[in-house]
Design brief:
With about 280 residues, the chain is α/β, with parallel strands linked by helices. The chain has helices spanning about 40-45, 70-75, 95-100, 110-115, 115-135, 150-165, 180-195, 210-215, 235, 240-245, 255-270; strands at about 1-10, 15-25, 30-35, 55-60, 65, 80, 170-175, 200-205, 220-225, 225-230. It comes from Deinococcus aquiradiocola.
Amino acid sequence: MLAFEDLGIRFGGNQAVQGVTGSITPGIITAIIGPNGAGKSTFFNLLSGFYKPTSGRITFGGQDITRLPTHEVVALGVARTFQTTTIYKELSVLENAVLGHRVRTRSGLWDALLGTGRERQERRASEAAAMDALRRVGLEGQAHVPAGSLTQEAQKRVSIALALATGPSVLLLDEPAAGINPEETVALTRTIRELAAGGLTVVLIEHKMSMIMTLADHIMVLHHGQKIAEGSPAQVSRDPAVIEAYLGGHAAPHVRDELKADLLQSAAELPGGQHA
């Protein structure tokens, strides 16, 4: 599906991402983790077309999308959210989601000004797609509420709905649980799991390790812009390179042991022991 080969980008003298090769398996939840500054969001920006790599290539469904503009990448089926919630707070929840579906429409300014049949038909289609997206994130009952009046957690759901309304086959979520409390994190985790169960391929960046260990089917670890490990949550939790990346070479042995124990406990507590 979505594959990348020797992917890299340099900003001046800083090699933010370097030599990352791999692919995203369809129909599962893949997590991208790593310490602060590991290059995770930059990697997402490359996959979604916001940045153009200085080396390597990206393919989607066998098609080279390395140099495509962002809107064309979205139209092909790759959508993303951002660390900072990016919604139009003065618009209703439904109007925000409608904007996402506009990537699938063809009517232009004159259609809107003249109220053409195509504009009316596409407007109905956009509203239907938007309502379906809101239903999938549990916000259909708040469709006509101003988005800015919602809680932080609900606003994150609006941004996910906006991405879903584009009709993606791959959804990139950049720190979806940032800034929300543990109870809200559990609810959002459930929603993401339901999206994947419905056939959507989900890739997420997240720093809440307990969430990752209970949610992800596969994990890729970045450090200093390079891939240092990947595998199931249980495999990654036992990888010495991952512990080293998070704690550094000078961490006290007991601190290392405590982190490793936390990771292993998170993996062991997965539903049904599916990753243990």
